Amino acid sequence: MFYRPEDGHGLPHNPFNAIVSPRPIGWISTRGTQGDNLAPYSFFNAVAYVPPQVMFASTSAKDDREGTKDSVAQIRESGVFAVNIVEYAARDVMNASSAAKPAGVDEFEISGAVKAECETIDCPRVAGAPATLECKLTQIVQLPGEANFAVFGEVTGVHMRDDCLRDGRFDVTTFSPLARLGYRDYCQVESLFELQRPDD
């Protein structure tokens, strides 16, 4: 099968996000003039080592946020955000925080996520997350499409849960990261293997 996106795929469900998978989930926490916010984004990744940088993309809008969603609107205000890593055990809490609520509703409260304060930025984070990246905004890029924004940030602080460190490594098998597949499907990382590069 081949299709051009502008012509449509003719399938019952869009295959695009199932093709690009699995995708890590950035559980983005923010603070703005209307309060604290927490929301998951599966268009998320690390993009540079030095200085460490990450990005996430928001692809829809709410009527009360002028063409975007709460996370992007609050990052525009504050210039900071935190990326909380989602473990399999937190899947239901993460999912509850994805509900579309009016601006000003605190998803920490409605989802049951426990809130803690960041160290280098004025922003909440998910207490007990396997890791949290505190970030200062570097740029917001408007992408083609009505409500598509890519948010880039430089990491200014890193929280790691002590039980996730083994032999000097951040060991993802200690908490099973949750990843997004296509449609309503998710997966968890349960095992890993190493490959050595030819030039190592």
Automatic annotation (TrEMBL):
Keywords linked to the UniProt accession: Oxidoreductase
EC number: 1.5.1.-
Organism: Jannaschia ovalis
Residue ranges of domain Flavin reductase like in the record: 20-172
GO MF annotation terms: oxidoreductase activity
High-level lineage: Bacteria, Pseudomonadati, Pseudomonadota, Alphaproteobacteria, Rhodobacterales
Domain of life, per lineage: Bacteria
Pfam family, one: Flavin_Reduct
Name this polypeptide is given: Flavin reductase family protein
